[in-house]
Amino acid sequence: MKLPCRENGVIMSYTRNEITVICKSNPEATYARYYSDIEKKIIADGYTPKTSMENLISIIILSFDCDDNYGEFDTESGCGGYGDRFTLEQCFKYIEDNGGYVEFDFYS
Fold first, then answer.
1. CB atoms within 10 A of CB 28
2. Phi-psi region of 44 (alpha: psi -120 to 50; beta: other; left: phi over 0)
3. Full DSSP string of 40-97
4. Model pTM score
5. What would the pLDDT profile of 63-102 be if each residue is shown by its tens digit?
6. Residues contacting residue 8 through CB under 8 Å, at least 6 positions apart
7. Helix axes 27-44, 88-97, angle to 10 degrees
8. Fewer beta carbons within 10 angstroms: which end of the chain, N or C?
9. Distances, alpha carbon 82 to alpha carbons 49, 56, 74, 107, in Å
10. How far apart are CA 108 and CA 93, in angstroms?
11. Distance CA 88, CA 41 (A)
12. Handedness of CA 55, 60, 61, 62 (dihedral sign)
């Protein structure tokens, strides 16, 4: 049995379609931990952000490190399938599957 993630000792969850979902994502911690690795990959791939490196990485992490990308892939919704925790390999696959860096290079 997996323990739910906690934020300051509080289990983070929400209800969708009368089902309670225990949140696994934590974008702030992911950003702090993986920023430099993602930045190195972007530079190595030769991509120059149109916005800023910080913004591009923030949008990538906020897009990928969300609960809809975790768990079993649901063919009807198109969500899930990337596992139950953030990994760089799956994040880079997500970027590739969604059109590359340019698709995340915008101000929200």
1. 12
2. alpha
3. HHHHHTT---SS-HHHHHHHHHHHHSSGGGSBS-BTTTTB--SBSS--HHHHHHHHHH
4. 0.70
5. 887 766 666 656 676 666 666 667 888 889 889 999 999 9
6. none
7. 70
8. N
9. 25, 20, 11, 25
10. 22
11. 10
12. positive
* Residue 18 per-residue DSSP state: T
Do the beta carbons of residue 82 and residue 64 sit within 8 Å?
yes
| Six-digit token string for 70 | 């975790």
In this structure, what DSSP letter does residue 13 have?
E
| Angle formed at CA 79 by CA 73 and CA 80, multiple of 5 degrees | 45
Helix (H, G, I), strand (E, B) or coil at 27: helix
pLDDT tens figures, 29-70: 888 889 999 999 999 999 999 999 999 999 998 888 776 666
